[in-house]
Task: structure prediction
Amino acid sequence: MSTLTVRQAVSDDIGSILRIYNQGIEDRIATLETDAKDLNYMDSWFQDHQGRYTVLVAERDDEVLGWTSLNPYSHRCAYSGVADLSIYIDRESRGQGVGSSLLQALEDVAKEEDFYKIVLFTFPFNQQGQGLYRKMGYREVGIFEKQGIMDDQPIDVMIMEKLLK
Result:
């Protein structure tokens, strides 16, 4: 098996990022979004993720297998050291170490960008995701009960965090 490489995303990656994000939407395990996104949406999102709020991709043999991003947690200056994260892995690549590689690289970038803490929001039923987060040192903070609606059903959302050293 070829080496997995994690690198800064470039505009040529937007199609792969979109494909993987739409898989996450379809699978109903990673986001409250329910409608597939298009290239215009993803291009706009990507433009908002330049500089401090970055996007990384993991690739093998020139194929993007997953992506992660730092997102604003809050625009209030008191929270300037806290970032929210997103991570999505291609269906066929889940459970193969792609997520761990992406999160480690994202944490390194976060420290370089003067973030001291990363938070994330996940579904309590997403056991595979929680396994990754716990393995990487994230801790559960609590549960927002009925935080959103997905497919006409209320959904709980778990908050997790990691203090960066």
